[in-house]
Amino acid sequence: MSTYDDASEPARALLASFDELQLAEMLAAASARIHRIRDLHRNEYETCSECTRNDGVPYPCPTIRALDKEQR
Ligand SMILES: [Zn+2]
To answer: Using 50, 70 and 90 to split pLDDT, how confident is the model at 72?
Structure first.
């Protein structure tokens, strides 16, 4: 069972309209965005390097927890 199997009919129609190269480019762009976010939100001494200002924000911060949350 893949995510595709769970997709609604409109979602499948949308996917069918993309060719594989477009999908690969979209995936690469999304992965690069996530990588840039993770570069900002690094674990430094158990606090988030981006979210922490004067108040310590424990690592993982809400941003990283959102990225790590499993898709359902
Ligand atoms: Zn953060």
So the answer is: low
CA 67 – ligand 1 centroid, Å: 11
Joined together, the tokens standing for residue 4 give 């595709």
The pair of structure tokens assigned to 36 is 């840039």
Beta-carbon contacts of 15 under 8 Å, excluding residues fewer than 6 positions away, are 4, 7, 23
- Give me the helices (H) in the chain, please: 3-6, 9-17, 20-40, 62-68
20-58 pLDDT tens trace = 888 899 999 999 999 999 999 999 999 998 888 767 788
- Whole-number Å distance, alpha carbon 71 to ligand 1 midpoint, is 20
pTM (whole model) above 0.85? no
Q: Is the previous residue joined to 60 through a cis bond, with omega within 30 degrees of 0?
A: yes
Instruction: Tell me how far the alpha carbon of residue 24 lies from the centroid of ligand 1, in angstroms.
Output: 28
